[in-house]
Design brief:
With 229 residues, this protein is mainly alpha-helical. Helix content is 50%, strand content 0%. It starts with a helix and ends in an 11-residue tail after the last helix.
């Protein structure tokens, strides 16, 4: 993050924070966390951890306590994660690892402690609520024994999608919905600098978006039938 960009972002956040009184005792935790992040000397690194794909109001059950805690604690260190990044089975150990880092015990020694200086780790009660929330709305993964995964298109799907999250069940969307979802994922992949099928980043098989879309459409959820009067 350039100095100018950091200042602009920090000032923008400060204006928003002051406009809502969020530096006062009754301030929203999310605004304060974002402002502190914008002032961090490690802001550029924090910005690259996750893409900005979801805002607090777009979380599942956005008014629930679990959604509030996700915004309060997760955004202290990086952009808000979508609960569908991980399966329910993986969220517990992921949250445990994140809390360990929030306590300054990560794998970067003194730098980790410095980065976590203003970060608040959740108490046990909040931790349990947050974990249950993320597990409830976690990714519904495709059955690893699904025969379509053995096809060339299935292998492309596995390589592409597993770079960022658990492999989604194609039944999550209809055939009509999947092209838009895949296009959005391509934008996230480009931001994250992961393999997107470019010739200089070849995989075996080579990733082809159109083949991945067709794979998902062939195994998609059926469109709801319209009942005639």
């Amino acid at each position: 993050m350039t100095v100018l960009r950091k200042v602009n972002w920090g000032m923008g956040m400060l204006i928003a924070v002051l406009a809502t009184g969020s530096l006062s005792a009754d301030a929203p935790d999310i605004a304060k966390a974002r402002y502190l992040w914008s002032q961090s000397p490690h802001g550029a690194m924090l910005e690259r951890i996750l893409p900005r794909v979801i805002e607090p109001g777009q979380l599942p059950e956005p008014k629930s306590e679990g959604a509030r805690l996700a915004a309060q604690y997760c955004i202290q260190c990086h952009y808000l994660p979508n609960p569908q990044m991980h399966t329910a089975a993986n969220w517990e150990k992921t949250v445990e690892r994140m809390v360990w880092r929030m306590q300054g015990k990560g794998n970067m020694g003194r730098l980790m402690k410095e980065m976590m200086d203003n970060v608040k780790a959740p108490p046990e009660e909040d931790l349990a609520t947050l974990t249950r929330y993320l597990q409830k709305h976690g990714q519904k993964e495709i059955d690893p024994r699904h025969p379509a995964l053995a096809t060339t298109a299935g292998q492309m799907f596995s390589i592409a999608c597993s770079q960022c999250h658990a492999l989604p069940d194609p039944h999550r969307h209809t055939a009509r919905e999947w092209p838009r979802v895949v296009q959005r994922m391509k934008q996230h992949m480009s931001w994250g600098n992961v393999v997107v099928g470019a010739s200089e980043l070849r995989t075996n098989p080579v990733l082809k978006t159109e083949e991945i879309v067709r794979f998902l459409q062939r195994n998609a959820r059926q469109e709801p039938s319209i009942q005639k009067p």
